[in-house]
Design a protein that fits this description.
The protein is of the alpha/beta class. The chain has ten helices and ten strands. Strands 6-7-8-3-9-10 form a six-stranded mixed sheet, with helices on both faces. Strands 2-1-4-5 form a four-stranded antiparallel sheet, covered by helices on one side. Strand 4 and strand 5 (63-64) form a beta hairpin. The longest helix has 16 residues, at 166-181.
Length: 233
């Protein structure tokens, strides 16, 4: 389980997170929703070691990880797929995937590649193609595939459907469900609130760096404030 307690994070003198407390139980999909600038990406970056906390704690599987380096956090099974995909555009799809496998033994990489190709068959067809020439949806698949190459126990996805055509949006959410059913816990940051909460076992609403509301996915979908603010209903 990922446990975040009373987390506070600042960018210089500007505080971004205020006493954020959330739990992500093993085996679940947990959605984190909120407007742009609410602090969702900051939270993921702090969990993955890219930002330092001011105070509070982050533990995973009982191990304190809030002072660990990003490579150590990945080795412990926590993998972050960032917003905007962040592929290496001049490298091939295969090389991008292998960049995600640096924490696993060489002997396991071929097997892991085949597992990722089983989820994303299109990547096997495109493995020799330069990543920057892929469509937006294919790039997102490559980004998720790169994250999966590290054999995550917890996969953190930041806006995986952003900017994608509707057909690819449906495919991304189908794949997230498949990944979760394979035993991977998912922390999902997503502005497509309807999709995210329909998928999620539970969710948290973040506003201005604070957790404003939490509940099961179905409870939040039925909440009048959530429906008004994020669904336009």
């Amino acid at each position: 389980m990922l446990s975040i307690e009373k987390l506070q994070v600042s960018y210089g003198k500007i505080q971004a997170l205020w006493d954020v407390t959330i739990e992500v139980p093993d085996g679940e999909i947990v959605a984190l929703i909120g407007a742009n600038g609410a602090g969702k990406t900051t939270l993921l970056k702090t969990v993955s070691g890219l930002l330092s906390k001011q105070s509070g704690s982050i533990t995973y599987d009982g191990l304190k990880i809030d002072a660990a380096s990003p490579p150590e956090i990945v080795k412990n099974g926590v993998v972050h797929v960032p917003e905007g995909r962040k592929l290496f555009p001049e490298m091939t799809v295969m090389d991008n995937l292998l960049m995600g496998a640096y924490t696993i033994p060489l002997a396991k990489r071929s097997q892991r590649l085949e597992e990722v190709f089983g989820i994303f068959p299109i990547l096997k067809e495109r493995m020799g193609q330069i990543a920057g020439t892929l469509s937006g949806g294919e790039q997102q698949m490559a980004a998720i595939g790169r994250g999966l190459m590290a054999e995550p126990k917890l996969l953190m996805l930041d806006e995986p459907s952003l900017g994608l055509a509707p057909l690819f949006v449906e495919e991304v959410f189908r794949v997230i469900t498949e990944i979760n059913r394979s035993g991977v816990t998912v922390l999902l940051v997503e502005q497509n609130t309807q999709h995210a909460l329909t998928l999620a076992h539970r969710g948290f609403v973040m506003e201005s760096g604070r957790i404003a509301l939490s509940g099961s996915g179905s409870e939040l979908l039925a909440d009048s404030n959530v429906r008004k603010a994020y669904l336009g209903l």
